[in-house]
Amino acid sequence: MPGVERKITGHGVAVGGVAPCLVVAGLLFGEAAAMALGVLGLLLLGASALLAPRNLRRLELELECSSRFFATRSIPLNVKLVNPRRLLDAWAVELSLRFPHEVERKGRANWTPARGGTQLRERLSIPARANVSKVEVELHSRFPLGLFAVRRKLSVACPMMVYPRLITPPELLLDSLQPDHHPISGAGLGDLFGEPRGIRLYQPGDKATRIHQPASARAIARGQGLQVRASDPPGFHPSACRIVFHSAAKAGEIIRLDRFERALSLAAGALAHFQAKQTKLVFQADFANWRACPCESRSQSIACHALLASAERAQTKPQQLAEFLQQIPAEEQLVIISDSPAENWAHLVPPSHRGAVLINIRQVRFKGRRMQLQALNN
Predict the structure, then answer these.
(1) Nearest-CA neighbor of 224 among 260, 192, 200, 257?
(2) Short-list 85, 72, 185, CA closest to 130
(3) CB atoms inside a 10 Å sphere around CB 93
(4) Model pTM?
(5) Alpha helices in 165-317, H assignment, sequence order
């Protein structure tokens, strides 16, 4: 039958070998019972050979899951096995679904009625980014008597874009604030703060280092509360930020694809970090020909993450990176991410961006889950 592979099992070989022997023995020795048993075995073998492929014929599969999600995130997966046949039900059908990065999910539908379906529910998690339109599926069955094993392969349409895993760069988490990127303006963007413009009452969330002790002592003597320094302007985060991703490597450096994937994850984490703080953000990468991609609204964020999901490593020369960095306005906070160590390209950062945040690709490593073994008492 087209599309269905049939293979005899060990039980089928045993029945196929013993049944003819019983028929021959019954004819030679006049044993009607042995001959009838042998004929019955041959009939069962022939019937199984005909029915086994038909158990998988015309079966269809429908997959329902999120079309866009982040790597390592667990999402619900609904699998529906549909039997459009009019009379023949499907019995004991095993499913094997192969997703990107060798992720496999298995299921079993014991009974799928004709003109009906069977619903299977699972959880799905992809370890790394991917962009596929189809999923390979295999259907297995040993119905009716386990004498034949049949298999059918099919491709099921399932558009799936897996964004890179979110890893927030540790440099952006220092004291939960951003470093001061433009000291001339007097805006304190990190633990630093600008010139004090006055004194105000203490509010929940103010750091102890900002308490003005002489003013607080006088206020407490008058029956008032603590006093803290007020900076002008008050902001703690940059008003505009630009994230630059590149793959500029020095001559003779070994290219490691795992670092490229890790750098994409760091870029995705940086995008999510700044977007959560409602910072005016622009993303530019060499694999996108340095096209400026704003990342402020939800739709723009989806477009940026989709760009990371389908990215391919570009061959960027250090001179090209230096020329591009010269064009970035000095008033923007600059964050540079690369799959090459920072010491190979840090000297290319122009003097106008001395406060740029350089992400170190070597400090983040993926660790596998540890297994915990528990001794069993006999």
Answers:
(1) 200
(2) 72
(3) 24
(4) 0.72
(5) 213-221, 257-276, 298-309
Sole residue written with tokens 């022997």: 21
User: CA–CA separation, 121 vs 127, rounded Å?
Assistant: 20
Helices (H), the chain: 10-29, 32-54, 213-221, 257-276, 298-309, 318-325
**β-pairing, 130-141 with 148-163?**
antiparallel
Distance CA 64, CA 135 (A): 12
Tens-of-pLDDT digits for all 378 residues of the chain? 457 899 999 999 999 999 999 999 988 888 889 999 999 999 999 999 999 999 999 999 999 999 999 999 999 999 999 999 988 999 999 999 999 999 999 999 999 999 999 999 999 999 999 999 999 999 999 998 999 999 999 999 999 999 999 998 888 876 334 444 444 444 344 444 444 567 888 877 677 877 888 889 988 988 888 988 776 444 455 678 899 999 988 776 777 888 899 999 999 999 998 887 778 899 999 999 999 999 988 899 999 999 999 999 988 898 999 999 999 988 888 999 999 888 889 999 998 887 888 998 876 554 444 444 444 443
Amino acid in position 291: R
Tokens of 349: 């950062």
Coil, strand or helix at 96: strand
